[in-house]
């Protein structure tokens, strides 16, 4: 295999070195395409170009490895590569989640393989396991912690009783959170990954925007104290669950009991729990972000291309496909200061607390109704799922 | 696919029911072969026979699922099935580990597939991940807790400061340990699994007897207290590690720090940690024994046969194969009463303790020398690996 690689960040550089070491992966890097050709590089200048066509139009290159940030630019590269009969490896979750149907069609039409294990939970081989090991229709649920930055922030907040703002600042200083952390802290990054995994787990194609998502930005010290008093951790949980013929899928900050395995998933780690009829739950755990974990997933994809591997999307080829559904009841903790929701916004309120530092209600709501609820926008109001 | 199943224990019964529920797995049970045909069964009598040839000589049956205890009887069944061109699914670790080379040859010669995910850590899809996801030569180590019964016993001993004898009794009463627990508590069961996994991880074929193994039967309350004081858990750790061109592989009771992920693996759970160059460690966790976890692995194998899956044993087809090696230094804790080893049995003794309840030395030994060391047989002497 001859590889053309877009991007020469740490993943690209690591790939170069590890491919030199491996005897089993028969892949050679033909060229890197980079933005700034004038910047000094650690490798021979002849390996670099800033002209994408030098890779895309090069017939010697069989595989394009796309490692750039910009999802739209990545999509254009990937599309052209596939239309030119090249296989593609990508770790771009936004690009995959937003263009899934087109990417499926491009694979079919051009008879090429697109692999993207690095897009979901980096080093955890979750897509491959859903494709191969859980290839039957017996899977009942998939849930986990899909975003390392927010998990780092939440772990610190709980363990050190620190405020969201301070921990975010620390995470940014350590390089665990982007300078614009919106995608992470609003749950959007986790939602992209959930979107991709829902297709591999259940054959459900959905627009990421359709998945009900709440972020972690409104969590305050009152919420943290509530968690500590009740032996909870707060985790940003992405979840897809089969309910009859429907899929219930959300990304929500959630109280999980300290003894649970998801609560044990700390700092920048990711975890996935899979459940299927006839099997106990299965837990996968590893670093969910970072250059080495992502590089390792990309490498495994390249290696798999070496023996003609492609995703078969077995669940999607079934006739009894599932639809996304919102008409579910859910238990929530709603914390507020002065202004509160109406009781009629709840199916039932089962606990009410008021005190000098804040107030909360615990009760059952309809997700359908909550999705467009105005009361979610009340200042100083925060929602955390329970159980 | 038409299945012939040997054994109608809980796994066989569960398989029957789950195959009824699944639309995606196109497999039908043709017949069960059981020992006692007179025993009343929950299904139609016509589904049962006590004549193995009714399955093995039946041309309608494409797949034999072997779920019996007796490893030698299982091997005869599996061999004949494969020689008759049938694919085989088995969960019999002893049979696989002891007959690996013959089974490889039978697969090659008859062009059939033999799958045995259920033989190692039940519901954890470890073999499939080693075959497919970690299919390159970059894996550096594999370690974990491969035996649920001993892990249950060790968890109880540490958490409840209970004696080995009492906890073993409790485990037997609960059905977590066999009435003859030797295979489990002497580390032999874990060794079979390690033996199988060494082949899939590194392409190393080895006789299970060659792997240096110590059991947990000699652990006493002195050892438990030592663990507690030092924030350790004791775990029976199976490990295979690449060291240059060699593989270092052992099954040993080991002190692991309470904060480590293997220490968090409690009770009957199993865990595997994989490490490879260029990747952070990857952790897989799930129930390692029991009918449902095993059944789920067997089911996934059956499902994989539906699309022609077979192990490719990619690591074994490499030229630079690894050899097992014993000439390694290891750090051990040796606890004793009156009689102790000679200091010359150690490379170096770094700590010595003596007290009213027992004595211990901590130091470095040569595995090579320890393998045949007479001092291991001293009564009231126990060895636990450190780090």
Automatic annotation (TrEMBL), chains A, B:
UniProt pathway: Amino-acid biosynthesis; L-methionine biosynthesis via de novo pathway; L-homoserine from L-aspartate: step 3/3; Amino-acid biosynthesis; L-threonine biosynthesis; L-threonine from L-aspartate: step 3/5
Domain Aspartate/homoserine dehydrogenase NAD-binding, chain residue ranges per copy: 7-117
An example Gene Ontology molecular-function term: homoserine dehydrogenase activity
Chemical reaction(s) catalysed: L-homoserine + NADP(+) = L-aspartate 4-semialdehyde + NADPH + H(+)
Keywords: Amino-acid biosynthesis, Methionine biosynthesis, NADP, Oxidoreductase, Threonine biosynthesis
InterPro entries named in the record: Asp/hSer_DH_NAD-bd, HDH_cat, HDH_CS, NAD(P)-bd_dom_sf
Pfam families associated with the record: Homoserine_dh (PF00742), NAD_binding_3 (PF03447)
Top EC class, one word: oxidoreductase
E.C. code: 1.1.1.3
PROSITE patterns in the record: HOMOSER_DHGENASE (PS01042)
SUPFAM superfamilies in alphabetical order: Glyceraldehyde-3-phosphate dehydrogenase-like, C-terminal domain, NAD(P)-binding Rossmann-fold domains
Annotated Homoserine dehydrogenase catalytic domain residues: 125-302
PANTHER family: HOMOSERINE DEHYDROGENASE (PTHR43331)
Similarity section: Belongs to the homoserine dehydrogenase family.
Protein name: Homoserine dehydrogenase
């Amino acid at each position: 295999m001859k590889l053309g690689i877009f991007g020469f960040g740490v993943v690209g550089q690591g790939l170069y070195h590890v491919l030199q070491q491996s005897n089993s992966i028969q892949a050679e890097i033909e060229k890197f395409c980079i933005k700034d050709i004038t910047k000094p590089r650690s490798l021979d200048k002849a390996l670099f170009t800033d002209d994408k066509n030098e890779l895309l139009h090069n017939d010697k290159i069989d595989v394009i490895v796309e490692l750039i940030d910009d999802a739209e630019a990545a999509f254009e590269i990937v599309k052209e590569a596939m239309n030119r009969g090249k296989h593609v490896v990508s770790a771009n979750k936004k690009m995959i989640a937003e263009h899934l149907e087109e990417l499926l069609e491009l694979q079919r039409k051009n008879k090429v393989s697109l692999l993207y294990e690095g897009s979901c939970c980096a080093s955890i081989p979750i897509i491959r396991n859903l494709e191969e090991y859980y290839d039957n229709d017996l899977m009942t649920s998939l849930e986990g912690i899909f975003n390392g930055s927010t998990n780092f922030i939440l772990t610190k907040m709980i363990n050190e009783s620190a405020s969201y703002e301070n921990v975010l600042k620390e995470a940014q200083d350590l390089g665990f959170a982007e300078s614009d952390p919106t995608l992470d802290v609003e749950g959007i990054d986790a939602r992209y990954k959930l979107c991709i995994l829902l297709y591999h787990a259940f054959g459900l194609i959905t627009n990421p925007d359709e998945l009900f998502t709440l972020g972690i930005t409104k969590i305050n010290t009152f919420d943290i104290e509530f968690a500590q008093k009740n032996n909870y951790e707060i985790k940003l949980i992405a979840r897809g669950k089969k309910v009859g013929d429907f899929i219930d899928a959300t990304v929500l900050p959630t109280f999980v009991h300290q003894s649970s395995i998801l609560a044990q998933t700390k700092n920048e780690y990711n975890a996935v729990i899979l459940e299927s009829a006839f099997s106990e739950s299965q837990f996968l755990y590893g670093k969910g972000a970072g250059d080495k974990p992502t590089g390792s997933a990309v490498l495994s994809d390249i290696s798999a291309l070496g023996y003609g591997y492609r995703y078969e999307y077995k669940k999607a080829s079934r006739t009894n496909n599932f639809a996304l559904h919102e008409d579910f009841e859910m238990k929530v903790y709603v914390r507020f200061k002065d202004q509160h929701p109406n009781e009629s916004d709840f199916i039932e309120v089962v606990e009410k607390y008021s005190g000098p530092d804040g107030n909360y209600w615990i009760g059952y709501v309809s997700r359908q109704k909550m999705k467009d609820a105005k009361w979610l926008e009340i200042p100083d109001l925060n929602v955390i799922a329970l159980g």
